[in-house]
Design brief:
Blueprint (H helix, E strand, L loop, with lengths): L8 H9 L5 E5 L6 H11 L6 E5 L20 E2 L7 E2 L1 H10 L5
Parallel strand pairs: 1-2
Antiparallel strand pairs: 3-4
Length: about 100
């Protein structure tokens, strides 16, 4: 994966992890060996977490959300291409089943 993390994200997540359970929930349908690819990227970029869940498509994330979940998502797709795009289909699905927007 060629994505570059947001500056300061790993440090911020480390501080959050002192008080919260951190779960990465990601859709990686087009990647070969998606769990290991994602785990390696997280480790190379110094992200600490408690659990990693990899699903095949963004819409599959919904079943992993609970009322206690705070979802932080960039709502993009196609990171394996030159320019990722907004994933409106996932945003619509999420709006239909859950959460207030901040």
């Amino acid at each position: 994966m060629k994505d570059v993390p947001v500056p300061g994200a790993a440090d911020a997540l480390r501080r959050l992890r002192e008080q919260y359970f951190i779960r990465f929930l990601t859709a990686r349908g087009s990647y070969e060996d998606p769990f290991n690819v994602t785990q390696t990227w997280l480790e190379l970029n110094d992200f600490e977490y408690d659990e990693l869940i990899v699903v095949d498509r963004p819409q599959s994330k919904v079943c992993h959300l609970t009322p206690e979940t705070i979802l932080v998502d960039d709502f993009t797709q196609g990171h394996e291409k030159e320019e990722p795009s907004l994933n409106q289909k996932f945003m619509d699905k999420l709006s239909a089943v859950t959460t207030p927007e901040l």
